[in-house]
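User: I'll paste a sequence; please echo it back and then give the predicted structure.

Assistant: Echoing your sequence first, then the prediction.
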Amino acid sequence: MSDCVRYPAPGCVVEYMEGNAVQIALITEEVGGRLRLLLPNRRETRLNASRLLPWLGPMHGADLGREDAVRLLEQHKKSREDLAADVPVMDVWELAQGEVSVAPATWFAELFTSDPSVDQVSAYGRALLACKSHFRFQPPDFQVFPAGMVEKRLVEEKTRLEREALIAGGAAFLRMLWDVACRKRELPPPPAEGASSGEWPPDDVAESLEEVLRARMIDPEGQEYDALWRTLGKGLPDVPHLPLQLLVAWGKVPPHYNFWLDRAGYASGDSWWTPHSEQVDALVRASQSGEMPDAALFTSDAPAGCMCDEDFSAVAAEAPASSPSLLFEPGPLPESPLPFISIDSASTRDVDDAFHVQPAEDGYLLTLALACPALYWPFGSPLDKAVLHRGTSIYLPEGDCHMLPEVLGTAAYSLIANESRPALCVEVPVDANGRYGSCRAYLARVRLAANLTYRDSQAVLDAQAESADAPLPENPAAAHAGQLRSGLDLARKRQGARIEDGAVVMDRPDPAVSLEGEGADVRVHVGPDYSAPDAQMLVAEMMILASAAVAHWALERGMSMLHRVQDVVLPREYAGIWNTPQDMTRIMRALTPSGLEVQARPHAALGLDRYTPMTSPLRRYPDLVNEAQVVHFLCTGQPRWSEDMLVRLLQALSPALDGAGQVQRFRPRYWKLLFFRQQGDKVWWPGVITEENDAFVSVSLPDQGMFVRGRRKLFDDRAHPGLQVDVRIGKVHPLYNEIMILEAATTG
């Protein structure tokens, strides 16, 4: 390298870093390590010699004229840039890695060129400086990254570039979407394929932007995109559910999108189970034939999306040593001769309970037939994991989301009249005072005599209440008038016994919410549902009785179960049936939410010392678990899970139930709020004051099943709980869960 020099001196071509780029210059003066440099643009600058890059030269005459010096600099600059573009950087790295960890630019140039010139050394230095993913400049040498580090840095670099592109192309687009959401402008048409548009981001940026918006919609507090979202969202308002509103404006999700399902990880519709169709088909055949399905169909090491850190289904698959297989053989089930009947809403397809009441010497003998998916249920299988992830069925105005595949929950396992179905039967004696004795549980195949509706059953009960000789209505329930009469008598006695034990019964009918139309044109209707108080009370009391009786049956056998508890002490005067909004609000303030626990404790509102939910195994996973515990005991003589196992099961199950519970609470409320907004702020609504203080007054709107509040100054001095008022509603924002009273007038 005859043109390379060791020390900088006037006339020497040098390079240094400025603004993250290599700059070339010629030394015109050097004094004590301070250099005066001439630049290609004819300007001069001063620089410490320590900032020079470690390749110096060539040396030219110190008496060069300014124009000649500039011409030489331009020649060297162009030569070095052209040479750097031709440097095979990846080949350099392949040859260097594993051979050296650090080396000067000269060493790398000599890999491909013998006796390289200073321009060639500079070209390699420039190329290595630009390849930050494979090399790091540590003056005077370059560090060579190993393969693992390179892979990591390439990923980081790709992420950085994508982030920069997303911010550059996405922030303005989001602001435009917000204008669309606020109806300040129309969404412009997207560009044709392959074309560019100043308002629409490139396809790859749009895809990443949608991913960020969906992630923030599902988890607003998530950390994955937190910093990126703060940057993208600059200039946008800090309002609830902003990502959802932008996605709606973009057309990526429809108006009134149910984002609560996404947050719960809950798939709507009935296609979520198709990856497990072979297992579902086997269970359908087993339900029909009574033959045990092939256990090999239900084993898989593939993950199936359990939502907890601890795999619930792995725990659920554990069984005592006497029953180590995935499924156990229950043996042939006897046929029950009892003509069971069920009572449900007319739209119900998943019938999971039926009853038969037989008069006894001192009261009644009640037998309940419960649908029995637990008989062959493959705990621990991929199908079970998918069902666990749902946790419960969800019933919404826009449609039902069933916990089980519909071919199982609404067909093969559903207690359909005149169809043979496996069932867990619970036989409970109830005396004339409504007190129950020890129950008997057994497995059988049942064939229901009828699937009745609340409306038809209530019509028969109403006719019987008028007169014993009154003609019965001409509907399917009339043929079972005796069962209905006995069932209602039993239910009333049971309710009376529970009230004696402190039960609190809230007689609060739920309004019917229905939708008409689709998308942005949907119209909401909210109003009183049909009234079937006796028929609904009949079914409710039987289900409560079954769960209480089985809880004691399990206690007698030392079995652990999942219990619904509400361990709070209520004043004795709270016991009874309540139907006024102000009384129900007052008592609800004293109640704590019920919860699932393994340790049995009282349930205050039900007036029970222990309560084991198990009457809805088609709709609720805890009921399925409890039913499986009982079924396993009946078939093997011992429970399937120990107390510790159930604790672990519950820890994993709770997040699924919490997520689904949010959907069930917030989604119907959203539709009710939209109903009020659609009605406008000129309508007056009748209500009853339930609470009041110096700042606010709360009002119940019984016909709509809503509580609203307004400022105290809107009400006169007579405002107190129980006072009837008319209110005018406004400031309704369904997505923000906002609704306020604008005006109030006393009517009572």
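Residues 643-679 form the longest helix (37 residues). The chain is about 35% helix and 20% strand.
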